[in-house]
Design goal:
Length: 148
């Protein structure tokens, strides 16, 4: 039996009957979600992030569903084959209007904070060849202890 596709509630999304919406560039896109579970929201690692870093993670998480994965572009590279791999870079943050154009340093600092907190791992830097960075979601944040 095929699982029914979740249809967002009216207060959750502004999609049409085909689960499409118009993005900030005027393109029709399929809606994706960024599920964040309560165990993550209440985890010391997440609480320890700055609010901007938490929001950045939510936008990154939206890459998990419905966006092109590195495995499609690099089918011969084993490290990129997982569904937990994703693209994210400064241009994508700009497209989402998360940072002002003068805030690139803040973006890279926040991405590093997400890595250090154990939410993502950078598996390939695209800086040297002008490609997108490739990251992988991580569960290392589970191991963060509470401070007493």
């Amino acid at each position: 039996m095929k699982k029914r596709e979740y249809k967002p509630k009216k207060f959750e999304s502004k999609t049409d009957e085909n689960n499409k919406y118009i993005d900030s560039q005027g393109k029709s896109r399929t809606e994706t979600s960024a599920n964040i579970y309560e165990s993550m929201l209440t985890a010391p690692a997440f609480i320890g992030l700055k609010p901007k870093q938490q929001i950045l993670y939510v936008y990154i998480k939206s890459q998990f569903y419905g966006h092109r994965k590195p495995k499609k572009d690099y089918p011969d590279i084993d490290d990129y084959k997982g569904n937990d791999c994703f693209y994210f870079n400064w241009q994508m943050a700009q497209d989402y209007q998360l940072y002002k154009p003068s805030m690139a340093r803040d973006f890279y600092r926040d991405m590093k904070a997400l890595q250090e907190a154990g939410f993502i791992d950078k598996i390939s830097s695209g800086q040297s060849n002008h490609k997108r960075n490739i990251y992988k979601f991580s569960s290392r944040w589970h191991k963060t202890k509470t401070t007493e």
